[in-house]
Task: inverse folding
């Protein structure tokens, strides 16, 4: 009614030609009030569903804060917990500072962070969706796909097949070139033994290919399996932002699964860790009686055990009946993941030449020829070992430590071995003539142990054969350098992984 009277007054004044300056001002004020009131009516009127959807899509595809994302600090290697509540539910990563926060609704930690720090773009670590806070709308932009891939790398079946034939270099954000698969792992405190073992396993093709395809173990959500798979995919990621990876999440899973036997802050034996890891993964990945672990690494041997009489007097020994049941040899089939080789005792005194003792690998392998006997005085037993079946990937552990009543002593004897073409058929119980050439192996990975000068500590590094580039690399935590294969046998080899030659 007020607007009608205002327009009538304006029209009447114009017709009579008696408009004064004060009347013109009054009319102008009334017109502005009417226009404002009309605009408010339009704004208060709800938009049709189609119009509102179009408006939301327009806002989602044109977020003004994408240029605030700082990719240089994003790696997503740490445990996905809210940095305030320490909850792992509904966690979002701030793409400006890299911190993790819970929730995105009003009053949540992510919402509060966006208001306090003016950080607006967040990523849901579970759904891989981007949101702008505090406005709380989804951000849709193809330029963010690289961040998704860094958080959760994925490999197609065709990409996995070409890994061992590709030597293509990748670029990190800072322009540094790196070779996928030859990537360093961060030593957070004292986890170099874990890093070295993971580097070895990440270059065993069937195991690597299994973990690169997440659907292969989708039947389990066990943290040990999931975090190992994530770490392997990051090691082979061709689109990484950085040239190194932190194994923090795997270390947390290992500490929990092992009952704190293996920790981040305390160095452990890599051979013990490898044995534990394989035995822990097998039941978690088993389908029926088999798993990728048993299919890849499991062999079989016959162990002949014979009880020794606990008598040192010769006359009493002669009086013992050798046909007594308790002294008869017992043969047992035993599966294995690792072959343990015993080094000869190190010399008690060094001569003036200070030469490091050396021994051929073939001499150590005689332990498994079915003839050589080994006595175990603690249990009054003697045993013979004979290999009956070899896996495609054979793990060999050189036993370098002996324990006595006072301390743990290391044997630094160098083991001489060829890099290619070592033949294991002489240590098998039976070899069909047609299979005589099927037991030749090439070295795939070598874990070496180095003493830290002036301390009783050790450091561990890995020599890996990168098949795509046809080069060997020496990897120690974050340091990755190319090396010559002739240098590998000169190291104090501790763990070796051998690959059966393809026919």
Result:
């Amino acid at each position: 009614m007020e607007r009608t009277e205002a327009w009538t007054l304006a029209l009447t004044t114009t017709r009579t030609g008696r408009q004064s300056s004060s009347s013109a001002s009054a009319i102008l004020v009334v017109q502005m009030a009417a226009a404002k009131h009309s605009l408010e009516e339009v704004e208060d009127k709800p938009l049709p569903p189609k119009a509102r959807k179009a408006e939301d899509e327009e806002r989602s595809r044109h977020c003004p804060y994408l240029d605030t994302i700082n990719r240089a600090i994003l790696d997503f290697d740490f445990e996905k917990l809210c940095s305030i509540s320490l909850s792992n539910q509904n966690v979002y990563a701030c793409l400006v500072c890299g911190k993790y926060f819970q929730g995105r609704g009003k009053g949540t930690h992510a919402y509060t962070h966006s208001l306090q720090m003016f950080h607006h773009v967040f990523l849901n670590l579970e759904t891989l969706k981007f949101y702008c806070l505090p406005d709380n709308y989804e951000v849709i932009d193809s330029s963010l796909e690289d961040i998704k891939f860094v958080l959760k790398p994925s490999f197609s079946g065709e990409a996995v097949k070409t890994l061992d034939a590709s030597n293509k270099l990748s670029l990190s954000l800072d322009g540094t070139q790196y070779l996928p698969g030859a990537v360093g792992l961060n030593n957070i405190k004292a986890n170099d033994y874990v890093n070295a073992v993971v580097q070895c396993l990440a270059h065993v093709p069937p195991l690597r290919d299994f973990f690169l395809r997440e659907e292969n173990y989708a039947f389990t959500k066990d943290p040990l399996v999931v975090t190992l798979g994530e770490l392997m995919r990051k090691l082979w990621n061709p689109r990484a932002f950085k040239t190194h990876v932190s194994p923090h999440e795997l270390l947390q899973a290992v500490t929990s699964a092992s009952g704190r036997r293996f920790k981040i802050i305390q160095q452990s034996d890599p051979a013990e860790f490898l044995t534990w890891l394989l035995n822990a993964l097998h039941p978690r990945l088993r389908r029926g009686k088999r798993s990728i672990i048993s299919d890849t690494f499991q062999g079989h041997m016959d162990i002949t055990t014979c009880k020794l009489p606990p008598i040192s007097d010769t006359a009493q020994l002669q009086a013992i009946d050798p046909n007594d049941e308790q002294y008869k040899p017992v043969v047992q089939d035993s599966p294995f993941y690792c072959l343990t080789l015993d080094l000869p005792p190190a010399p008690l005194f060094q001569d003036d030449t200070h030469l490091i003792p050396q021994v051929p690998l073939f001499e150590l392998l005689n332990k498994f020829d079915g003839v050589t006997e080994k006595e175990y005085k603690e249990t009054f037993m003697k045993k013979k070992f004979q290999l009956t079946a070899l896996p495609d990937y054979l793990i060999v552990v050189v036993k370098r430590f002996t324990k006595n009543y006072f301390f743990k002593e290391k044997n630094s004897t160098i083991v001489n071995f060829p890099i290619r073409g070592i033949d294991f058929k002489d240590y098998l119980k039976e070899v069909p003539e047609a299979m005589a050439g099927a037991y030749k192996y090439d070295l795939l990975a070598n874990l070496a142990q180095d003493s830290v000068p002036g301390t009783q500590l050790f450091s561990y590094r890995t020599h890996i054969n990168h098949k795509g580039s046809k080069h060997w690399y020496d990897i120690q935590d974050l340091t990755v350098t190319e090396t010559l294969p002739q240098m590998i046998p000169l190291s104090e080899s501790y763990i070796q992984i051998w690959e059966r030659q393809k026919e």
Notes: The radius of gyration is 35 Å. The first helix runs from residue 2 to 16.
